[in-house]
Every structure is written in C-alpha cells, then in structure tokens.
UniProtKB/TrEMBL annotation:
It comes from Xanthocytophaga flava. Gene3D superfamilies: 3.40.630.30. Pfam families: Acetyltransf_1 (PF00583). This is GNAT family N-acetyltransferase. SUPFAM superfamilies: Acyl-CoA N-acyltransferases (Nat) (SSF55729). Residues 3-146 form the N-acetyltransferase domain.
Length: 146
C-alpha cells in the first residue's frame, strides 16, 4: 500500500474523522479554526491512499516553550496496521525539528492503550497525568525531545 503524506485542510480532517471508531463526535470546524488560527504555527497532515484521505495528524504551537503539540490524529480503521500513524508522526517530527522546536508533546486518554503504547514505542516519555472523574478518562501526557 502506497500512502502519501501531505499538508491538508480542516475539511479533509473532518472527512476522515467519521471513519475512526474511537472518535464519537467530530469537533466542529470552528473548534479547529479557533485552536489553529490563534496559534503562532500549526500543521495539518493528511495521509492519502491515492487521492482518498485515510488519516490525519494536526498540531500547533500551544506554549511558547520550544514545544510543538500534536493535538489530534487518527487513521481510518481499514488502514490501520500499515504504518500510517507512524508515517504521519515521522513527518510531524521532522517538520517540528525543521521549524526549530525542541520537543514534541501529545496527550492521550488512559483508555486508549494502543495510542499510549504507540507513543512509548516511538521514544516518547510520560511527563505527567491529568486526573479526571474516572481512571479510564485520565489524560497521559507524553513528550519526545527532538
């Protein structure tokens, strides 16, 4: 399977969102615009099988501390286990390095074990936890030095 990674749009992200079983309700386009367009820099990556978007990764400069925040990402169910998420992460890491960032951060929920394992296997370290009402909803914060 030949996957191409390119910069994309919020509309393309939202088109992939509905094919990701973990995501119940897509944030409104306005929520993406508010986060991204009010940051110093942002990146929207789209993974395509030919012209069909099958995955995405969205990040932005959240804090002025040299870090870049990988906010949202996902791969359509039928394209998983083909390295698409890893390709998206690799492109984001390289882009962040090229932009002068020193750290890439993301967070996941405790109930999303595959994402937690993905981050650890790719060299991310856990640097914090955000407690929530249930243990499954705790947020696990990860970072990788670039």
């Amino acid at each position: 399977m030949k996957i191409q990674i390119r910069e994309g749009t919020i509309d393309e992200v939202l088109s992939v969102y509905q094919s990701i079983p973990e995501f119940q309700n897509a944030p409104a386009k306005k929520a993406y615009e508010q986060r991204l367009f009010h940051s110093n820099r942002y990146l929207i990556l789209i993974a395509c099988n030919y012209t069909q978007p099958v995955g995405f990764k969205v990040g932005y400069e959240k804090d002025a501390d040299g870090s870049f925040y990988s906010w949202m990402g996902g791969v359509a169910n039928e394209y998983r286990r083909h390295g698409v998420a890893g390709q998206l992460m690799d492109v984001m890491i390289q882009w962040a390095k090229d932009q002068g960032y020193t750290t890439l951060r993301f967070k996941t929920r405790n109930c999303f074990k595959p994402m937690l394992i993905f981050g650890i296997k790719r060299g991310f370290d856990i640097y914090g936890i955000e407690p929530r009402e249930t243990l499954e909803d705790y947020r696990i914060l990860l970072e990788k030095r670039l």
